[in-house]
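Q: I'm writing up a methods section and want to include an example of the input and output format. Could you take the sequence below and give the corresponding predicted structure tokens, formatted cleanly so I can copy it straight into the document?
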Amino acid sequence: MATNPHRYAAAEIAAIDRVMRERRDIRHFVPGALPEGLLARLIEAAQHAPSVGYMQPWRFVRIASPTTREALRQIVDAERAATAAAMPTRSAEFLKLKVEGIREAAAVLVVALMPEREAHVFGRRTLPEMDLASVACAIQNMWLLARAEGIGLGWVSFFDPQAVSALLAMPPGARPVAILCLGPVAEFPPAPLLETLGWGQRLAQDEVLFEDRWKVGAGGTPTTY
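A: Here is the clean output for your methods example:
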């Protein structure tokens, strides 16, 4: 059998597989700074993500001011309350969850879609949301590198985009899509926290992979609330 010259070594493949499986959405951090130079490497990893039409729609705002960080946390807290109200059967249980680590994290970044995206039609004419998909790829790159470095990363999506845009003086058309909390952790949970706490479970492969056409009877992922 011919050897594939493009294939990585077995140990390298195993490392990639491990970091994907052990990545976690982190909410609990311990005191400490990010290793020197890591933030720049994380941004560089994001910049190596695929992007539709090579538009590179991601922009990052590092939150250095304690005042701005606290204002951001208050915006998140308001949405947390609104989300709880939208799931009445488990609202009390939801409110016990820690959904952000803005105060404790060593670094906080807001990730946004750039303004003036309408000019980019390459790959987006019928699927304009591909700009958001590109940003998600960039965040995943950051997440995997952070995990490999033993640093936690949590993606916070509990916020009103207009409130965050106003807080950070974003130009018209720019759209915040993520708050990233980064920092040292005491541990990486062996399984996703929401799975452990009964908010969902990983779907089997035959529930997400179909052949030639949509599987008869296959619907969406059920909720637990």
